[in-house]
Amino acid sequence: MQNQDNPDALAWHKRFAVQTNNRAWDLTTVVRTPDQDREMLDAAHASAWHWAVIGTELNRMRATMLLAEVHALLGQGASSFQFAQEMHAYFLANDTPDWEVAFAHAIYAHAACIAGASAIHRRAYESAKVAIQAIASEEDRAIVMKTFVQIPQP
Q1: HEC profile for 64-104?
Q2: Can you give the pLDDT at residue 4?
Q3: CATH number, span 7-148
């Protein structure tokens, strides 16, 4: 991508990737106005773009996870499910922390629900419940639950 040999540009990309990622995630778990919906969408896509410039595959897949959740929250089933399929496959195929496995299942379930894939929604929802219970850290479990409680039950 661009600016790979400019340390200042790389530092700015990382700064904006983190900042927009955190803002978008913060907005995913609150009651939003239409303006905040737009901000959440813009921040998620900005974060994904910055991570594409400077991030690792893990950074890019985490950005894809965020895109899946944001698109699901905004009722964009087709795009949400496409993002969710990609990140779900990645996180289940790699050495992934317990909290991130739970997020992957939960967001996959959410995207499947919004996309109208009821059988996948049901299976992923159950997998998310099991994965959430397996999270060792109470703090991590509480963070994942903020996302999980927003997913319609099958």
Answers
A1: HHHHHHHHHHCCCHHHHHHHHHHHHHHHHHCCCCHHHHHHH
A2: 59
A3: 1.25.40
Residues of the chain where predicted confidence (pLDDT) is lower than 50:
1
Domain ranges of the chain: 7-148
Instruction: Residue count of the chain, please give it.
Output: 154
| pLDDT tens by residue, 10-37 | 899 999 999 999 999 999 999 999 999 9
* pLDDT, tens digit (0-9, with 9 covering 90-100), for 68-83: 999 999 999 999 999 9
Please compute, for residue 20, the number of CA atoms within 13 A of its CA located in the half-sphere on the CB side: 25
Give the H/E segment covering residue 20: helix 7-28
pTM over 0.85: yes
Amino acid identity of residue 37, one-letter, is D
SS3 state of residue 149? coil
Q: Give me the pLDDT at residue 5, please.
A: 66
Question: How many angstroms separate the CA atoms of 111 and 97, rounded?
Answer: 21
- In the three-class reduction of DSSP (H, G, I as helix; E, B as strand; rest coil), residue 118 is classed as helix
**Per-residue burial over 94-122, b = 16 or more CB atoms within 10 Å of its CB, e = otherwise:** eebebbbbbbbbbbbbbbbbbbebeebbe
Residues 106, 77: Cα–Cα separation, whole Å: 15
